[in-house]
Design a protein that fits this description.
The complex is a heterodimer of chains A (about 270) and B (about 300).
Chain A (H helix, E strand, L loop, with lengths): L1 H14 L3 H24 L16 H6 L1 H4 L3 H16 L3 H7 L3 H37 L9 H27 L3 H25 L3 H5 L3 H9 L3 H5 L11 H21 L8
Helix pairs in contact in A: 1-7, 2-7, 5-7, 5-8, 5-9, 7-8, 8-13, 11-13
Chain B lengths: L11 E10 L2 E11 L4 E5 L6 H8 L7 E6 L14 E4 L11 H12 L4 H9 L15 H13 L5 E5 L7 H16 L3 E6 L2 H4 L5 E6 L2 E7 H4 L4 E5 L3 H10 L3 E5 L2 E5 L3 H11 L5 E5 L2 H14 L2
Parallel strand pairs in B: 3-7, 3-8, 5-6, 6-7
Antiparallel strand pairs in B: 1-2, 1-4, 8-9, 10-12, 10-13, 11-12
Helix pairs in contact in B: 2-3, 3-4, 8-9
The chains are: A mainly alpha (about 270), B alpha/beta (about 300).
The complex binds adenosine-5'-diphosphate and magnesium ion.
The site of magnesium ion has 4 residues of chain B, from helix 1.
């Protein structure tokens, strides 16, 4: 009863402010734009794709997977805001008054945000596939949609988006200050991790560690990433197997949420 | 279940409750009881520790020591807490982008409270016309009302209200007084805090007064009245003071005479006559509850 109540409450909570659809809208625009640029290049509509050797069998997967490669930040942000927003607006007070067992509240948020992450994944994929396949058709190259492999990739991409949302919740419990959490999120995903992964390509041994970074694990899970592809032909060696990537991503989500739940989530609400 | 309805009040018991925020002792070894079916005023000046005490009672703040229970159970052990204890803490706890109705729907969903109840409590506090407006545009008084709506949502037998009068206009204050009396008439237990006695004086049966985080008074309203003072004067003040002291009163210099406590006007007059001191002034002064309240919290207020 307590858990289903908390679940219902968290769903209602998320659906009754504008945040979820505003973020979804930006996600769609961002993914559409990126998929259009790549699809036009790979589809042979824009010049340059051929020389770079990018046009080929792998092209559809690379274009469709931008749903995650550029879109994964959105479920993370939604997840983070689901915690930091409550801290910022002091709504933890009514939340904990209705469900005083804080572990139940956190568990409900993890489940609800996973579902929303999956939803973001579906929306983002629908966008990248609509735009990408449209352009491939226009350029008279294969859309790749008749390949069963690509549908498995879609499933993994949607799963990845769900886990990213869970990581966001963990981040929020770890860093309840909204501005600090968003700054850390953007700094890590846009600077720290790309630099480490790039360095991993050149520094012996570092690539072994870089594989376990969340972004790299996420790319491994999806199994297609335009960034990984552009890192060169050896790049695939720098990623884990898809299922390993999935487990690492999930592991990161669980560990971050666990640390958060044992520290700031227990603090006095004054 | 065959237990009594949740509408029936339960006893609130606070035992040895203590909270330190770093070096600040916000609440120290506080004990008091709130009997079922009574309205109890929880008074103390700003910073006395009222909010901290209530938040410990509600499981929001972890006590450094001591316990607080409702009907013998800790708040967090209540199965559907808002159906047992309704709470309105200070005003700002709403997401500004959520409407009043949705704020209450979020609360209702957690506890299996039917959504018809949401509209019922909005009507009860007079917010029906504003139910679908975002709370960000609400005045302080409207937020207070929405807070009360949240407290009533689960139709609880116990209500804990932290400074509900703050920010209300005179109309609102009158409304809340009636409101508190009605709740008590229905047999609910109400614990209502305020930093001003006058705000709750007309609504409460009993008082718990704290200052500096410590209990300074627990009892009835009447018991708080220390009986007032008598202002008296005579050309020979020294002789008058001696006469009063020997009759058992205590004397302090007052404005325009001597201020006597511990004796009523008749006894002061008799003492003066017996000592042969002619009086130039004899005037009983009603100390009043507010004065007694200020005396009490002034005495215990500093750490
Ligand atoms: N989170 C906190 N951190 C540090 N000190 C606090 C905190 N909350 C309250 N206090 C202090 O505890 C004391 C009691 O505060 P409070 O319970 O809010 O009093 P009241 O509600 O009676 O005005 C005050 O000295 C206040 O400054
Ligand atoms: Mg207070």
């Amino acid at each position: 009863m307590r858990f289903t109540g908390a679940l219902r409450s968290e769903f209602t909570k998320l659906l009754t402010t504008r945040m979820w659809w505003v973020l979804a809208l930006i996600l769609v625009v961002y993914v559409a734009f990126t998929a259009a640029a790549l699809g036009a290049t790979f589809g042979g509509i824009l010049p340059g794709g051929d020389e770079a050797g990018l046009v080929g069998d792998g092209a559809p997967a690379l274009v469709y997977s931008v749903a995650v490669t550029v879109g994964y930040v959105f479920p993370v942000i939604l997840g983070t805001l689901s915690i930091t927003g409550e801290v910022r607006h002091q709504t933890l007070t009514p939340t904990f008054l209705t469900t005083p067992r804080r572990g139940i509240v956190l568990a409900a948020k993890l489940v609800v945000l996973f579902v929303f992450g999956v939803f973001y994944g579906v929306v983002a994929l629908a966008t990248s596939v609509a735009v990408g396949a449209g352009l491939f058709t226009l350029g008279e190259v294969s859309t790749g949609l008749d390949d069963g492999e690509i549908w498995l990739m879609f499933a993994r991409a949607v799963l990845a988006m769900g886990i990213w949302a869970v990581i966001g919740v963990g981040l929020g419990t770890l860093i309840p200050n909204q501005i600090a959490a968003i700054v850390v999120l953007l700094a890590f995903t846009q600077f720290v991790e790309p630099i480490l992964r790039t360095a991993g390509m050149f520094v012996e041994g570092l690539s072994e560690v870089a594989k376990f970074l969340p972004g790299a694990a996420g790319d491994a899970l999806v199994g297609a990433s335009v960034f990984a592809a552009m890192s060169g032909p050896d790049a695939s060696g720098a990623l884990l197997e898809w299922w390993q990537g999935g487990l690492v991503l999930l592991g990161i989500a669980v560990v971050v949420a666990l640390i958060g739940s044992l520290t700031t989530w227990r603090k006095d609400v004054t | 279940m065959v237990t009594a309805s949740d509408r029936d009040g339960r006893t609130i018991e606070v035992r040895g409750l203590t909270k330190r925020f770093g070096a600040v002792a916000a609440v120290s070894d506080l004990s008091f009881t709130v009997a079922p079916g009574t309205v109890t005023g929880f008074l103390g000046p700003n910073g006395a520790g009222k909010t901290t005490t209530l938040r410990m009672l509600l499981g929001l703040v972890e006590p450094s020591a001591g316990t607080a229970t409702i009907g013998g159970v800790r708040y967090r052990d209540l199965p559907r807490p808002i159906t047992t204890v309704g709470t309105a803490l200070e005003a700002a706890s709403f997401h500004p982008g959520r409407t009043a109705r949705n704020h209450l729907r979020v609360m209702a969903a957690s506890s299996g409270v039917p959504s018809s109840r949401v509209d019922a409590v909005l009507a009860l506090v007079g917010l029906s016309d504003y139910a679908t407006r975002r709370v960000g545009g609400y005045s302080l008084g409207m937020r207070q009302r929405l807070g009360l709506a949240g407290a009533l949502l689960g139709d609880p037998g116990v209500l804990v209200l932290d400074e509900p009068v703050n920010g209300l206009d005179p109309e609102g204050i009158r409304w809340i007084r009636t409101f508190l009396r009605d709740l008590a008439a229905e047999g609910r237990t109400v614990l209502v805090s305020s930093h001003l006695l006058s705000e709750v004086q007309q609504s409460v049966d009993r008082l718990v007064i704290i200052a500096g985080g410590r209990l300074v008074y627990e009892g009835t309203l009447d018991g708080l009245d220390t009986g007032g003072t008598v202002l008296v004067d005579a050309p020979d003040r020294a002789a008058l003071a001696a006469a009063i002291r020997s009759a058992g009163g205590s004397v302090e210099p007052g404005d325009g005479g001597l201020s006597v406590t511990g004796l009523d006007a008749t006894s002061v007059g008799a003492a003066a006559l017996a000592a042969g001191v002619p009086l130039s002034l004899l005037m009983p002064r009603q100390g009043g509850l507010e004065q007694s309240f200020l005396d009490i919290v002034g005495g215990g207020g500093s750490r």
